[in-house]
Write a structure and sequence with these properties.
The complex is a heterodimer of chains A (711) and B (232).
Chain A: H1 2-29, H2 33-59, H3 67-93, H4 98-121, H5 125-149, H6 157-175, H7 181-228, H8 232-247, E1 251-258, E2 262-269, E3 279-281, H9 285-293, E4 297-300, H10 306-313, H11 317-320, E5 321-331, E6 334-344, H12 352-391, E7 396-399, E8 405-408, H13 410-417, H14 427-434, E9 436-441, E10 444-453, E11 460-467, H15 469-506, H16 513-540, E12 546-549, H17 550-564, E13 571-576, E14 582-585, H18 587-603, E15 610-618, E16 621-627, H19 635-638, H20 665-674, E17 678-684, E18 688-696
Chain B: E1 2-6, H1 10-22, E2 26-30, H2 33-43, E3 47-51, H3 60-70, E4 75-79, H4 85-93, E5 98-101, H5 106-125, E6 131-132, E7 136-139, E8 144-147, E9 150-152, H6 156-167, E10 172-174, H7 175-183, H8 192-205, E11 215-218, E12 222-225
The chains are: A alpha+beta (711), B alpha/beta (232).
Chain lengths: 711, 232
């Protein structure tokens, strides 16, 4: 009697403990299937306990409810807890295939109804229990088998032991119900239920909490190792080592997207070697599915799609894998690959906790992979760029603010190694003022242009050296040629002009109109030759140092162009929209260029039309338009207009109306380009042409008339 | 008035000579440098006109320098080859008083010749006071200049320039006034003339041409002669 009471109290305590566990667990996560089943188990154990309590109370004549109720409770508790334990075991090892569930449900139904019939049909409990005993033992054996067979899946020895204890406890009820074995059995089961509750609490609540610090340390360690491993292969090995360590997995693999729609395994740990070229389309296999859906997927051997899903991504993987979890790697919302952890068919099953861990790991991996890819890309494009720069025959350098060379290509390095100074101390001032400057290094003349490299800190400039030695030689040669040619032209010109003037004096009193016309024509033609030679000469000079008022230049140009007109048959119109604009250069050359354009406009347009000259500012440049209403330039020759010695056909019979210097637009163009300007035109045949000249505006505010200074 | 013309182009020589004869000058024509020097010494012309480039012979610049070594006779350069201002300055530095670029109109040619001759003439008639501070002494009547006791030779244009500046001692003479008074109205736009001649004058009379004490530059305005009261 005392033993009974003691057992009852102990049972009650165990029961309270397991109920408390249930409460905590359900409160923590009621959606978890294992917890729900455990709650069910606890309820059945409680009912069983209740029946024992009622039985004792009846014995002590404190309860008169009748034996049937006690028996119903007892049977319900016993049978229910057997099946609940069976379900719990399945749930723990996650053998939740549909046939197994169906089987257990039907056996529960059959057994329960059979028991119910027995209870109400006969009053002898000893007789009534016997036929079901074998079935209980069979179920108990199945539970034991599952627990032992899949012991790796229950990663807690305590849980395994307690389930076994529970089964043993229940089986004990059949050995000798008359010597208190039933009480012992109930005690063992209550104790086991309480223990299972504690173990589950530990597994679900305390364990993760206890592991959190380790996990944080792991994440930190991983982040650190990722930043240290720029080499992709090292990085991936490190990730897989960490993954298997964190998740207690047996193997791991990383897949990366290859091309547009397929993926390849790029690295693996403890996996049979797979052909590196093995490529699978995205969407196929568990890895492909993960990459397609951008979600973590878990598959276990019991899942129906396991074989097909696994073998597509891992040939023959389904034969050895027990469970696989795959998480996508993403970078800027784009899936770039996947990481998989695998346990073998004896190994553990992955929990929700594991899923979170893998996702953390995957995001770290994504950063690492993206960083590594970017670094590699930058490295390789840098390498390519340096190869290209080295292949260039001109020096190229980048410099910092102090003019110290940061990078030099091969030619620049060669020059620097010969102790040539590549960057003059005033390079910055020179490049800010003119955007380019000239430099003489190792008998080569360079035109240096410096470009500010955007987005660099500290700021850097790229300096490109263009070899202009040949141009310089050509220019010097041209100067010599011009010098000699002009000498050869000007001497006969002087003789002819002087003689003409003497002739004019001699014939001052003649009345013969033919003689007067001839003398006048001779004079005009000689003047024209003089203008041509002056234009050639001035284009050969390179003296650009004064600031010229655009208004003055254009006014004087128009004046000069007017003197070339024998009679004013054209209307010359000048409009200066932005006054007080100055350009830097040679007034003489610029005037020559403008006069040339105006002369051309007159020459190629009929009498009575207007030649319009407009000047205005646009984007820091002064634009001069010379517009005529003439014959225009045919499309077929527009291409040749700026070529040396090009001449269009002069307009009809009006050849006498204008005697332009006729040296061609080529020289005008070279004058404008010597002034850092641009020249272009728009022309419609029979409608007229407009020539545009854009010259950089002088920034210096010193617009005073340039008075000669000392030598 | 005798004028010597040296030019290798016969047509130019003849035409210029014809014009000058019409204007009443006595003209000597030479085709080449040695001949020109010989004629110069034989005839002692009032003005020499030289072409700069003489193929195969003594060039105009050399002839100019040779003449300058012995006399201050006005010299006019006539060149087809001047491309830059530097060419002109080089010619003036060789001692020429005038630099004309071909082709030149006959009327202008004659006007310039008359201006040079007028300059040389007027110089000899000036009656300004002499100057002497112990270092620099100028005798206007005798057209003699001594620097630190040694006689220096000034060309007519240099002397004219110095005397104009001295007449205006202490005052600034601007570039255009200087051009008008020294060279004549025809030269108003030839702003480089004063610059070149001031430089030459400084080299001849200043103790240190780089840091002048007599002929001072008023930046962007003109030049000023400063008298010194004691020996420098």
């Amino acid at each position: 009697m005392e033993l009974e009471v003691f057992a009852l109290v102990l049972n009650g305590l165990c029961n309270v403990f397991s109920l408390t566990s249930v409460l905590l667990l359900v409160w923590y996560n009621w959606k978890n299937g294992t917890i729900q089943i455990f709650a069910l188990l606890t309820i059945f154990v409680s009912i069983w306990n209740l029946s024992a309590l009622l039985y004792e109370l009846e014995n002590a004549a404190l309860f008169l409810g009748g034996t049937t109720l006690i028996r119903v409770f007892s049977q319900l508790g016993f049978v229910g807890s057997v099946f609940a334990l069976y379900a719990l075991t399945l749930s723990l090892v996650r053998l939740f295939s549909f046939p197994l569930k169906l089987l257990s449900f039907f056996s529960f139904l059959v057994l329960a109804s059979f028991q119910a019939i027995l209870i109400f049909a006969a009053s002898s409990s000893e007789v009534s229990r016997l036929p079901a005993n074998e079935l209980y033992l069979v179920i108990g054996a199945i539970i034991l088998f599952i627990v032992i067979r899949y012991r790796h899946r229950i990663d807690s020895t305590a849980l395994q032991t307690l389930i076994i204890t529970f089964v043993l406890g229940q089986s004990a009820a059949f050995f000798n119900p008359r010597v208190g074995a039933s009480t012992f059995s109930l005690l063992l089961c209550s104790f086991s239920a309480g223990g299972i509750g504690l173990a589950l609490l530990w597994r679900e609540l305390v364990g993760p909490l206890r592991d959190r610090q380790t996990q944080i340390l792991n994440v930190r360690e991983l982040a650190q190792s990722l930043s240290e491993n720029i080499e992709l292969d090292n990085l991936l090995s490190e990730i897989m080592i960490q993954a298997t360590k964190w998740l207690k997995a047996d193997a791991a693999a990383v897949f990366l997207k290859f091309g547009h729609d397929s993926y390849r395994m790029v690295s693996s740990l403890d996996l049979p070697i797979i052909d590196k070229e093995f490529e699978v389309r995205i969407g196929e296999g568990i890895v492909g599915k993960t990459m397609q859906t951008n979600k973590t997927l878990i598959l276990e051997a019991s899942d129906t799609s396991f074989k097909q899903m696994v073998s597509t991504s891992f040939p023959n993987g389904h034969e050895v894998f027990g469970s696989i979890m795959t998480s996508p790697l993403t970078n800027q919302h784009q899936v770039i690959g996947a990481v998989s952890v695998i346990s073998n068919n004896q190994g553990k099953l992955f929990s929700q906790e594991d899923r979170m861990l893998l996702e953390i790991l995957a995001s770290e991996t994504s950063i690492g992979v993206a960083y590594s890819q970017i670094t590699n890309e930058i490295e390789s494009s840098r390498h390519n760029l340096e190869n290209v720069l080295d292949a260039i025959d001109s020096p190229i350098v980048t410099v910092n603010e102090r003019g110290e060379i940061q990078y030099a290509n091969r030619v620049a390095r060669d020059l620097a190694s010969k102790n040539h100074s590549l960057v003059p101390t005033d390079w910055k001032a020179a490049s800010v003022r003119l955007k380019w400057y000239e430099q003489h290094i190792d008998d080569v003349y360079y035109n240096c242009q410096s470009i500010h490299l955007e987005g660099r800190f500290p700021p850097e400039w790229l300096i490109v050296y263009v070899d202009i030695t040949r141009e310089k030689q050509m220019s010097a040669l041209r100067d010599d040629v011009i010098r000699l040619t002009s000498h050869d032209i000007k001497n006969p010109l002087q003789a002819a002009m002087a003689n003409l003037e003497l002739l004019q004096e001699d014939l001052a009193n003649t009345n013969n109109p033919d003689i007067i016309t001839s003398l006048s024509d001779l004079n005009n033609q000689l003047n024209r030759i003089e203008r041509i030679s002056n234009t050639i000469l001035s284009s050969g000079r390179e003296q650009i140092h004064t600031q010229c008022s655009v208004t003055n230049l254009l006014t004087e140009s128009i004046q000069e162009a007017k003197t070339h007109l024998r009679e004013p048959k054209h209307i010359l119109h000048l409009l200066v929209r932005d006054k007080h604009v100055y350009v830097t250069g040679s007034a003489e050359q610029l005037k020559r260029a403008f006069v040339n354009l105006i002369d051309n406009a007159i020459k190629y347009s009929p009498s009575g039309t207007t030649v319009r000259v407009v000047s205005y500012l646009e984007n820091g440049e002064n634009i001069v338009e010379v517009h005529d209403e003439g014959i225009g330039i045919p499309l077929s020759i527009q291409h040749y207009v700026f070529r040396p010695f090009f001449r269009g056909h002069e307009y009809g019979q009006d050849t006498h109306s204008a005697v332009g210097s006729g040296v061609g637009l080529n020289i005008v163009k070279s004058v404008i380009e010597n002034h850092r300007g641009r020249i272009w035109f728009e022309s419609v045949e029979t409608r007229g042409s407009t020539f545009f000249i854009a010259l950089p505006v002088a920034t210096n505010a010193d617009h005073l008339e340039n008075i000669e200074t000392e030598i | 008035m005798k004028i010597l013309i040296m030019d290798d182009e016969q047509a130019i020589r003849d035409a210029l000579g014809r014009k000058l004869r019409r204007e009443g000058f006595e003209v000597f024509l030479c085709a080449e440098g040695i001949e020109a020097l010989r004629t110069f010494h034989a005839e002692r012309p009032n003005l020499v006109i030289l072409d700069i480039v003489i193929p195969g012979g003594m060039d105009g610049l050399t002839v100019c320098k040779r003449i300058r070594e012995v006399t201050l006779t006005p010299i006019m350069m006539l060149s087809a080859q001047a491309v830059t201002e530097e060419d002109i300055v080089e010619g003036l530095n060789a001692g020429a008083d005038e630099y004309l670029i071909k082709p030149v109109r006959l009327n202008e040619f004659v006007a310039r010749i008359q201006a040079i001759l007028r300059r040389a003439q007027v110089n000899s008639q000036e009656t300004e006071v002499n100057y002497n501070d112990g270092y620099l002494s100028v005798d206007v009547q005798r057209r003699q200049v001594h620097v630190n006791g040694r006689q220096v030779h000034l060309t007519p244009t240099e002397f004219k320039l110095l005397s104009v500046l001295m007449n205006n001692a202490g005052r600034v003479v601007n570039q255009r006034d200087l051009l008008e008074q020294v060279w004549g109205r025809e030269y108003m736009d030839d702003l480089y003339y004063p610059r070149v001649y001031i430089s030459q004058l400084r080299h001849k009379i200043e103790p240190d041409a780089a840091n002048p004490i007599y002929i001072l530059t008023e930046h962007r305005i003109g030049y000023r002669f400063e008298k010194r009261h004691q020996k420098v």
